[in-house]
Amino acid sequence: MVRFDNVGLRYGMGPEVLKDLTFSIAPRSFQFLTGPSGAGKTTLLRLILLSLKPTRGLISIFGTDVSQIAGDSLTTARRRMGVVFQDFRLLDHLTTYENVALPLRVQGKEEASYRAEVVELLRWVGLGERMHVLPPVLSGGEKQRAAIARALIVRPELLLADEPTGNVDPNLGRRLLRLFIELNRLGTSVIIATHDFGLMDQVDARRLVLAEGRLHIYD
Ligand SMILES: Nc1ncnc2c1ncn2[C@@H]1O[C@H](COP(=O)(O)OP(=O)(O)OP(=O)(O)O)[C@@H](O)[C@H]1O
């Protein structure tokens, strides 16, 4: 699903932020990506998301070398991934429902074809009562769940979540983790970037640990 071979990345003329990364992400797998602040977790997620290119080394996503991916195939590869950003990136002028439905609207789908599915997903993440409000009136945890629902609505094969429990209390954090585990059981590969040891200790999952630009893997 994802393969890195000796990947290095530097921003501009700066130092190498990621060094000699070699690892792969299997279909239907579940893993945490961790390491101290500034270790490069977000940078690594951006490489997988095809929003950054490696300075050296080879990355292949869904079996295709990313240096060969452009135009339509880039859009197709991105559509197979769901992302939950640290800062949610909800659009404040659209309701919660409209935010979650947006990826499908962008794909040109008719509302009648997806309305029931969006409503069902909003209920699943516990936002059934909040679907018609605008994001500025949602709490931090509600925004987080809306961002998760928007990432899931495209039924991604690979879900990337950057600190998905960063803004919620431990109880909601546990519920969100169960949601990701359930999604993984349904067949999606999941990568959760987090500092939260309390969260990681709840699941016996693979850990990808970044430290000083290098990756250590604990299976
Ligand atoms: N656009 C950029 N331009 C230059 N340097 C950057 C850029 N983005 C990140 N960096 C640097 O790259 C390093 C890794 O940053 P990154 O955001 O990937 O770390 P992180 O592990 O996700 O951190 P956090 O846990 O605090 O979110 C840091 O030293 C950061 O300052």
Features:
219 residues, alpha/beta, Rossmann fold, 2 domains, six-stranded mixed β-sheet, four-stranded antiparallel β-sheet, 10 strands, 34% helix, globular, binds adenosine-5'-triphosphate, cell membrane
Q: What is the number of strand segments?
A: 10
Biggest sheet statistics: 6 strands, mixed
Q: Per CATH, what is the topology of the largest domain?
A: Rossmann fold
Question: How many domains would you count in the coordinates?
Answer: 2
| Helix/strand order, N-terminal first | EEEHEEHEHHHEHEHEE
| Share of β-strand residues | 25-35%
- What shape does the CA trace take? globular
N- to C-terminal distance: 17 Å
Mean pLDDT: 92
User: Helix segment count?
Assistant: 7
By CATH's scheme, which homologous superfamily of the largest domain applies? P-loop containing nucleotide triphosphate hydrolases
Taking Cα atoms only, what radius of gyration do you get, to the nearest Å? 17 Å
Q: Which strand order spans the largest sheet, edge to edge or round the barrel?
A: 6-7-8-3-9-10
Runs in which pLDDT lies below 50 for 5 or more consecutive residues are none
Structural class from helices and strands? alpha/beta
What ligands does this structure carry? adenosine-5'-triphosphate
